[in-house]
Amino acid sequence: MTAAPDSLAAVHRHGTQLARASWFAAVGEPLTAGERDDAAIYLAGVAFTATPVVGVAGWPQASELLRRPGWDERVWDNEEEHRRRLLRQATAIHGEAALMTALTAVSVAASDLVHGAAAIAATRGGTADETLTRVAAGAATQACYLAALATAARDPAAEPPRANDDDHPFHAKYRLFAGGRWPLTIADDHFYIF
Amino acid sequence: MTTTAYPQVRTLEEFQTQPDDYKLAIRKIVRSHAINELYGARVFDEPAIAFAPTPYAKWLTCRVAMEEYGHHVRFKELGEQVGLHEADMLPGGDKRPLSIFEFELKSWAEFCVIKLLADLAEILQVEDLLHCSFHPLRNLARMTMPEERFHAQFGEDFSKDLIETEAGRTAVQDAIDRYYPLLPPFFGRAKSANNAAFRQFGIKQRTNEAMREDYVGRARTLVEDQLGLTLPIAA
Fold first, then answer.
1. Residues of A numbered 51-90 whose beta carbons fall under 8 angstroms of chain B's beta carbons: which are they?
2. Which residue in A142, A146, A194 has the most chain B C-beta atoms within 10 A of its own C-beta, making it the best mutation to test that interface?
3. Which residue from A108, A130, A135 is facing B56, i.e. has the nearest CB?
């Protein structure tokens, strides 16, 4: 095991910054150019390059899309492949116990924070669906975990330092969440963002 | 229901002045919850994410896993406050997780049934702590109860979705047939000395036998009246 305090410190910083994110504050708004850029980074990373990005207007539409059986499961499988690879890399750098402690701290910090934010956003959007707000919270918490894992897997000793660490699809997805969005699903050859 | 004259223990400072048997009883309950909440999240909730059929179900399962894990964290924090060591509240030590976790999860239908039936059992256990004489534990039970109810509702809702098809109905009934027999023993032995101590100290309210009987009745209503399926006879 190689000690790598810098990248775990970055994971801890990630956890402390969660409260400053705009969880679900921009759902339903028109997508900006920067958000489309992050969507493109994410799509390229999960092998769905050139998939058109579509904005979703409201909570009922979001719920319907998420329940749709014809979604493209390959996106989940590809994320899982990234996750397993990152987990192996990060475990080799930090050791299992230290890594799990750091990632758990991020997930626990995110969990209650994003649930409250989703409930407020859903109420503002005219929805009082307790289950859907939990789905939203689950999605955002998972995005926090995955972004923290991608951060933990960075090798601080790598030469030269990688310039494109923020181009990891999990970081791009996290930025969409942190900017108030909810990337929903890929279905019918389109990437739907709420 | 058994009533108790044991005085209310409102704070951790008051806890420190209680008899050793009271402290031991509280530690046993807190330790059991801390271990089993974590173990359940590891062996059922986290693996179930892969079986969930839609993004909606996957992320809801993620949320359920986080809530169960959060329960572990809260019980562990309370455990440390009442004198338990962190290592004693993690699986792998001398206290084995409950036998209901020995079921090998292999499908989404099985997970839905586990939420339906095991979380109902958990609700009964937490209900019994809602009037606990030790207020920090009582308050923790009251905090976790809405989430436990939601998890059982999750199981009921997704089981209802599944039984809309013949194949799903068969899968849910099969999971009930194989999983339900593990649950009545979850409430502990009849005439349990531990349970007698819990009731003597006003920590729990009911005997293991009374809780088991209540559970079987509620499970039967849920499975037979709500879902139109059959609850097997457990030994």
1. 63, 66-69, 71, 76, 80
2. A142
3. A135
Percent of the residues in chain A that have a pLDDT greater than 70, as a whole number: 92
Please give the full DSSP string across A74-90, using - where no structure is assigned.
HHHHHHHHHHHHHHHHH
- How large is the greatest C-alpha to C-alpha distance in chain A, in angstroms? 51
Rounded Cα gap, residues B144 and B28, in angstroms: 18
Q: How many A×B Cβ pairs under 8 Å?
A: 61
Task: Give me the interface pTM, i.e. the ipTM.
Answer: 0.90
Is A185 close to B63, i.e. CB distance below 8 A? Answer: no
Residue ranges of domains in chain B, CATH in brackets: 12-226 (1.20.1260.10)
Q: Is the pLDDT reported for residue A167 higher than 90?
A: no
Write out chain A residues lying below 8 Å of B69, CB-based. Answer: 104, 107-108
* pLDDT tens digits, A90-142: 999 999 989 988 998 899 899 989 999 999 999 999 999 999 999 999 999 99
Q: Report d(CA A158, CA A2) in Å as an integer.
A: 13
For residue A165, pLDDT over 70 is answered with no
